Structure formats: C-alpha cells, structure tokens
Amino acid sequence: MIDDYGRVFVAVELKRINSQDEIPVQFDSVAFMDKARFIGEPGLRMNLKYVSFRNVDLSNVEFYNVEWGEEVRELVFFRRLKIINEDFIDDKNYGEIATIYHQLRKNYESSLRFVEAGGFFIGEMEAMRKGLWKSNRIIDKLLSLTYGLYKVIAMYGESIFLPSTWLTGIVLVFAILRYLSNNSSFTEAFLDSLFAASQFPRANTIADLMERVISFPFLGILFIALRRRFERKK
Has residue 187 got a pLDDT over 50? Predict the structure, then answer.
C-alpha cells in the first residue's frame, strides 16, 4: 500500500509463484517520493525472498521485521543473505547484483544492523567474484581466484572463526613436527609453535622461520576481521 506521502507499507506475506520466467514481485526502477518502509506484521516477518529492487535507490528505504533469502551452502557458520535476482541472472549482470547487495549493506549499516549488513556484504563479494570468473580476461579470472581464497580463509573478512581455525591448525601441525623431530615434550613443542605463529619465536630455527612466514597472512586477515567487527560496533 502506498500512502499520500509516497511511503510504502507492506504487511502481507509475499510468496513465490510457480514460474521460472520472471521474478514474482518487482519494484524495479521505482522512484519513491519520500521515505519508504517495508514492515512485517507483529509476530510475522514480511517475506522479501522473492522481491526485486533493481535500479532502486535504497538509501531512503527502511526495512522492519522482514525476511530475506539465505544461501544454505554458505551457512555453516554464517548468514549469507540472498536476493531473488541471483536466480534470474545471466553472465553479464553480476555487477548489477553486486550493486543491489551494496545498497542493502549500506542501508543496514546506517541502521546499525551489522549482522544483516555482513550477510549482504558476503553476497556483494560473491557477485564480484563470480562476475570476474565469467570474464574472458585471464587477469580477471586470476583475481576471482584471490577472492575465492579470501572467502575460504575468512569469508571475505566477515569471519573471526575461520582465520582462527586456520591458525590453530598451523600451530598444531608445526607442534607435531617439532615433537617428532626433537626430544622435547609435546608441551614445549606446542609452546614453541604457538610463539612462532604469533611472530614472537623463542628460537630462530628453520621451523620457526617457516611457521612465521606461513602464519603471517592469516594473522593479518584475523586482524582485519577483528577491526571490522569492532569498527561496526562504534
């Protein structure tokens, strides 16, 4: 429903129709005259899983008690929010998809809703990665691979858990190698490995040097993820 001030109040559940030819609900290229609000009913979130906002300025739109789609394959430890446009994409429109995600991310960040904003940021980065991979240029495909590596290591900087897990694995592997090659106890080997991975080695062996080099980028990525988390809470 649109009132006299151009604001949108939607309090119905928008369901997907059985059609693969077009997006069920489209606000494409709509220019809202004033602040627009999409609001779910009390106790019932509005379903925006099948709503398109292509070419819409979302900076003046508010979302309350709404539900977006989620990409199950990304949800081992994260909320990867998904818009319906991804299901109707062709090889040339990933930039457009990234733009919609970017607008939704900025929208939610401005409302201090950083969990959802992070979910849209992952979608934005995924669209950029896939768009680069679809390019015919070798340099773009290589760049897409670096995006994929960043995803595996830290979910594009949105995860503290992933780089911490990688660092823990590095510490354990080098601790086992030290334990098997030296006469020291496993506790000593683990402490040596832990200090080396933290860039404060207790010795300057080849193992320390190798571990410092391998763990350094993971430490940097973990620092970036922590900084993003705390900066968003300001």
Answer: yes
